[in-house]
Amino acid sequence: MEKHGQVASLCLLLVFDAVELLNEIVKVFLMQLLNFAEAVAIRRRSLEKLFQILDMYDALFGVFPDLEAMVMDEFVCTEAKRVLAGLGRATKGTFMEFENVVKRETSSLC
């Protein structure tokens, strides 16, 4: 009977190690995706890129609750919040630049 207990303990250790390993692998890929989103958010603003930024914001915002539930590392969640805020700022800034362009073009017509 003791041998079964040792085997069960070993199996549990392997499962916990596998979960930890999977979490680290997911973390690496998530960080790459977040780094890409951050690069999009900080690049030069242009109206042509607005819909890409909005799509990225919408996608990240939509999966954020699941991300928080699945990821064990608080750093990843904090980074996701930071990138989401950056995408939001990029969207607002792009809209403001668009508004300024429209104002300039409208004033030049008068």
UniProtKB/TrEMBL annotation:
The Exocyst complex subunit Exo70 C-terminal domain extends over: 19-107
Cross-referenced Gene3D superfamilies:
Exocyst complex component Exo70 (1.20.1280.170)
Q: Which InterPro entries match?
A: Cullin_repeat-like_dom_sf, Exo70, Exo70_C
Q: Which Pfam families match?
A: Exo70_C (PF03081)
Q: Name one GO molecular function term.
A: phosphatidylinositol-4,5-bisphosphate binding
Report the record's Gene Ontology biological process terms: exocytosis; protein transport
Mind telling me which SUPFAM superfamilies this protein's record contains? Cullin repeat-like
User: TM spans, by residue?
Assistant: none
One cellular-component annotation, GO:
exocyst
Q: Which UniProt keywords apply?
A: Exocytosis, Protein transport, Signal, Transport
Instruction: State the similarity comment.
Output: Belongs to the EXO70 family.
Which purpose does this protein serve, as stated in its record? Component of the exocyst complex.
The identity of this protein, by name, is Exocyst subunit Exo70 family protein
Source organism per entry reads: Salix purpurea
Lineage of the species this protein comes from:
Eukaryota, Viridiplantae, Streptophyta, Embryophyta, Tracheophyta
